[in-house]
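Researcher: Go.
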Amino acid sequence: MIIRIFRATIHEGKEAEFREFFLHTALPLVKSQPGLVSATPGLPRPESPREFCMVMVWKDVESLKAFAGEDWQNPHIHPDEAELVADRALHHYDLAQLITA
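Model: Structure:
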């Protein structure tokens, strides 16, 4: 499984508009994708009031490619959020399989 962490920094003054899009458009869109195991949205904290994130777990690379395309390792944004996002970052990790005794 693959952990995908997307982080977006929003233009000042656009936080409320992005929050609405993030929770009511982006999150349902991601959650409807085949191969998604989980999606957890992260909202800004006082020390980073313009920063949002989403932590996703995907079944495999093929599922992730079906969602994000062949360029799945680069951060993409929905056209509806393009004018809201000042910066974005994306990181991928293999999910550690823990062994319990």
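Model: The two ends are 22 Å apart (CA to CA).
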